[in-house]
Amino acid sequence: MRLPRVFAPVTVVLCLLLLVAVGAPIAAAQERTVTLTGWVIDSTSGDPIGQAMLILDGAVLRVASESDGAFVIENVSEGPHTLLVQKHAFATKTFEFVITPDHPASIDVGVFGLAEALLQEVVLVGAVTDLRSGEGVGATPIMLNGRVIVLADTEGEFAVTMMMPGGVNVLEVRRVGYEPLTVELQIEPETTELTLDITLRTAAVPLRPVVVETAPAPVSRRLQGFYERKRYENGTFLTPEQIDRISAQRVTDILRTIPGLRVYGSGMNVRIDIPRCLRNLQPRILVDNLEYAHSNIDIGLQPQDIAAVEVYTAGARIPVQYNRPGSRTCGVILIWTKS
Questions:
Q1: Exposed/middle/buried for residue 264 (C-beta within 10 Å: 0-12, 13-18, 19+)
Q2: In the list 87, 179, 184, 268, which could disulfide-bond 52, CB 3.0-4.6 Å?
């Protein structure tokens, strides 16, 4: 839309700035937003100004004015706000306004007139550093009033001489992996050099969850039969991981955790039996397929040596290769060592 040439000279019309409707009904105290529309023009000639930069409450908006000067700012919340309108070679305009609950969802704020600024030579020197480490952030673009003016070197340092308009100028720093930073520079008539220490904060970037799938640890040949029998669940099985969690001081500490076994006594007088068995019948104990020679399982065997345990308390469930019908035993305890 081409604006008619009736604006020069133009006084900024910003109807909403001090609009507080007297006696208007108060809307429900509910968070709401409005959309602002308007135009940016040259206050002397009345010509529209395109690509003007709009800065609302210190945040550089990624919406610039169109070639006809029109702009749209969405999702403006209720409450007080400060809007800067910036264009290279023009003096920055600052507008303060309040959005109240009774404002409509879309507000035409009218025309913003920018006056051409007198340019003066200013030297900008500084460094860009990481807030956490204090190290320089190299290859960082430095933007002034919407244009890249210099690129920081590998150490994060920069120096540039610019023709800058007096008044407020907007310096913007953007670097991948860091939060964007906006700084307002006030250029006075006597300003010839500015030293800037720019500190960037690492941005919190949401990442997709990473699922790491590891191949199962190879099973030793000694435990292959253990895991095959475990699939049928005819007995009670303690895996290497379960045994590690027990943190046993003695082998009998491991056996005490198994349902259907009873371990009593201590030291040299330890007895293991199965309550359901007849009196004086004890389970067979095999270590790595060999009959254990000692009556006390704690003699000659340490908990850290044990890789797995399987226990069968009912004759019908004992694997055929470990069943000895007619023997003076009841049940079988199979202990597998790590080596």
A1: exposed
A2: 87
- DSSP conformational letter for 134: -
Fold assignment, 119-200: Immunoglobulin-like (2.60.40)
The CA distances from residue 228 to 30, 67, 313, 314, in Å, are: 64, 76, 19, 19
What is 221-337's CATH number, 3.20.20.140, 1.10.10.10, 2.170.130.10, 3.40.30.10? 2.170.130.10
Choose among 83, 46, 78: nearest CA to 63.
Answer: 83
**Is there a contact between 251 and 311 (Cβ–Cβ < 8 Å)?**
no
Is 65 within 8 Å of 51 (Cβ atoms)? yes
Residue 127 near residue 200, CB atoms below 8 Å: no
253 backbone dihedrals φ, ψ, rounded to 5°: -65, -35
Instruction: Convert the pLDDT of each residue in 202-233 to its tens digit.
Output: 987 666 666 666 555 566 777 888 998 888 87
Contact (CB, 8 A) for 245 and 316:
no
- The pLDDT assigned to 126 comes to 95
Query: Could you tell me how far CA 91 lies from the centroid of its own chain?
Result: 40
CATH architecture for segment(s) 33-114: Sandwich (2.60)
pLDDT single digits (tens) 89-115: 888 888 888 999 888 888 888 888 888
Q: Return d(Cα 3, Cα 13) in angstroms, integer.
A: 15
Query: Does residue 57 carry a pLDDT above 90?
Result: no
Q: Structural domain boundaries of the chain?
A: 33-114, 119-200, 221-337
45-71 core/surface letters (b: 16 or more CB in 10 A; e: else):
ebebbeebbbbbeeebeeebbbeebeb
CA dist 145 → 31, 51, 85, 239 (Å): 32, 11, 10, 67
- Whether this prediction's pTM lies above 0.70 is answered by no
**Cross-strand bridge partners of residue 239:** none
Query: Same CATH fold, 119-200 and 33-114?
Result: yes
